Amino acid sequence: MANRFPHIVMIDDDEDDQYFFREHFKSCDDHLCFEGFIGGEAFFDFFDNQELEEDQLPNLILLDLNIPKDDGIDILMRLKNNATLKLIPVLVLTTSSSPLDIEDCYNLGVHSYFVKPMSLQETKELVSVIYEYWFNQNIISRLKTG
């Protein structure tokens, strides 16, 4: 597989959250590609209308569960039922700490579940942990990003 820079997609209706996560991830790696989508339909419309090669797919998908007009659990099911997208690790980043949401997400194959931090400093720390694990420690991610 060709070497490439880390590629993250965030599906979240909150543009401020997308901005803060993008900026914090960029501070970890200024070559990182970060794409934000306001809801699941925007994401699926984009990816369903592209003829993407495997090395053009994201390495990681960040998913909010609480998206108006979309249900995060439904988006997760669509991701995991899509032959092209199902192997991409999905991390839930949401305000919900509901045990039912957590259980549903893990049953559907989510790789990690995080409650969104309340401060910018906590967000920065969480992003650093996610970046370090998924792009420096995790063997599969290292293979995909070179």
Automatic annotation (TrEMBL):
<feature type="modified residue" description="4-aspartylphosphate">
    <location>
        <position position="64"/>
    </location>
</feature>
<dbReference type="GO" id="GO:0000160">
    <property type="term" value="P:phosphorelay signal transduction system"/>
</dbReference>
<dbReference type="InterPro" id="IPR052893">
    <property type="entry name" value="TCS_response_regulator"/>
</dbReference>
<dbReference type="InterPro" id="IPR001789">
    <property type="entry name" value="Sig_transdc_resp-reg_receiver"/>
</dbReference>
<dbReference type="InterPro" id="IPR011006">
    <property type="entry name" value="CheY-like_superfamily"/>
</dbReference>
<keyword id="KW-0597">Phosphoprotein</keyword>
<dbReference type="Pfam" id="PF00072">
    <property type="entry name" value="Response_reg"/>
</dbReference>
<feature type="domain" description="Response regulatory">
    <location>
        <begin position="7"/>
        <end position="131"/>
    </location>
</feature>
<protein>
    <submittedName>
        <fullName>Response regulator receiver domain protein (CheY-like)</fullName>
    </submittedName>
</protein>
